């Protein structure tokens, strides 16, 4: 079966192809145009659709790899079909990433990327892109799986999408520092069944050491919903400073920024896809304060009806706080106010 996606036409019979990820790939190629580097590794290529689009729509020079011989055959046919000449490997992705360096390394596995993150960080010279579909492990539904794969302890909370992104980003950041590299996260999102993270990589022992200023713990009170990020270098509190309840401690995970507005602005300027532009613009406008508040959960605790999200955001801004909606939840508010302020604002709408 032939599939048309972006500027590419590919055969997908006999190889894995997920049409639900088309929008993700639409966003990817727009971001690729604003990210540094020409050489690009599609480490787990399957049909080759992402690498082909990276060439046709973002000007990258792709290398393809898949351990499946049928996938390699299909990739070569798809390259001919799209008029592309490129190297195609049939190898374990980790072996490819250890043998050769690329400006941009893209890892999009079926399931967890954990087994590839070390090699990806070793190979990438300028930028990386990672997909994870093991959402149960990352969001706290599968505690032991997260411990095994990401060396992180988390449990399910109402803002689980953000927790999952920060677990993944934290794993990437810590692995990168082993090679004196520091990631600057360009864009991160959670959608449907997957997490996606893009980052620019800077090689510098000094910057790699500074990475740990943004690695730490989430301390969270299930009794009153108070939460706070704590640096890995700080003492971790055990008692909630608001209600004196026992705190849950999750991590280590990424506590710094999950996006870079300069790169996102460049990407949006070059975007002609209206749906993708709308999504990236929302991400650009979003405040980067950890961790967002799920208004329905707060209102449930208060026994009140939830007001409109935009009205809450506006009220918080009037009070002098940084506040915005979040692409991670239709009923979430991201702001630098604490839970006490959020509750007072919600009560004002009664």
Describe this structure in words.
The chain is of the alpha/beta class and 350 residues long. The chain has two domains: 2-266, Rossmann fold, CATH 3.40.50; 292-348, N2,N2-dimethylguanosine tRNA methyltransferase, C-terminal domain (Phenylalanyl-tRNA Synthetase, Chain B, domain 1, 2-Layer Sandwich). 40% of the residues lie in helices and 25% in strands. The chain has 14 helices and 15 strands. It has helices at residues 22-34, 49-58, 69-81, 93-99, 114-123, 135-139, 143-150, 160-177, 205-210, 261-269, 274-285, 295-302, 309-318, 339-348; strands spanning 2-5, 8-11, 39-42, 61-65, 87-89, 102-107, 124-132, 181-191, 194-203, 215-220, 227-231, 248-254, 293-294, 323-326, 329-335. Strands 5-4-3-6-7-9-8 form a seven-stranded mixed β-sheet, sandwiched between helices. α1 (22-34) packs across α2, α1 packs across α10 and α5 (114-123) packs across α8. The longest helix has 18 residues, at 160-177. The chain starts with a strand and ends with a helix.
């Amino acid at each position: 079966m032939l599939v048309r996606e972006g500027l590419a036409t590919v055969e997908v019979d006999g190889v894995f192809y997920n049409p639900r990820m088309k929008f993700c790939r639409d966003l990817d190629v727009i971001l690729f145009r604003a990210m540094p580097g020409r050489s690009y590794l599609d480490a787990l290529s399957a049909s080759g659709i992402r690498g082909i689009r990276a060439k046709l729509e973002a000007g990258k020079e792709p290398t393809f790899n898949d351990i499946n011989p049928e996938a390699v055959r299909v990739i070569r046919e798809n390259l001919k079909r799209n008029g592309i000449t490129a190297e195609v490997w049939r190898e374990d992705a980790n072996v490819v990433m250890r043998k050769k360096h690329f400006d941009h390394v893209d890892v999009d596995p079926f399931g967890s990327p954990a087994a590839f993150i070390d090699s990806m960080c070793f190979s990438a010279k300028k930028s990386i892109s990672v997909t994870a579909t093991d959402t149960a492990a990352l969001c706290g539904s599968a505690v032991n799986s997260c411990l095994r794969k990401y060396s992180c302890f988390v449990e399910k909370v109402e803002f689980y999408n953000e927790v999952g992104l920060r677990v993944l980003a934290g794993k990437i950041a810590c692995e990168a520092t082993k090679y004196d590299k520091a990631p600057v996260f360009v864009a991160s999102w959670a959608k449907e069944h997957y997490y996606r993270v893009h980052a620019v990589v800077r090689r510098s022992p000094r910057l790699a050491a500074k990475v740990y200023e943004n690695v730490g713990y989430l301390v969270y009170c299930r009794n009153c919903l108070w939460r706070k990020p704590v640096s890995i270098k700080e003492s971790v509190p055990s008692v909630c400073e608001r209600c004196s309840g026992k705190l849950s401690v999750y991590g280590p995970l990424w506590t710094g920024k999950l996006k870079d507005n300069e790169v996102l602005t460049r990407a949006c300027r070059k975007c002609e896809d209206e749906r993708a532009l709308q999504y990236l613009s929302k991400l650009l406008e979003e405040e980067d304060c950890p961790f967002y508040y799920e208004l329905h959960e707060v209102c449930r605790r208060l026994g009140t009806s939830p007001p409109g999200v935009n009205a809450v955001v506006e009220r918080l801004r009037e009070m002098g706080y940084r506040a915005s909606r979040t692409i991670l939840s239709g009923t979430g508010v991201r702001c630098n106010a604490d839970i006490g302020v959020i509750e007072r604002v919600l009560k004002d709408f009664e």
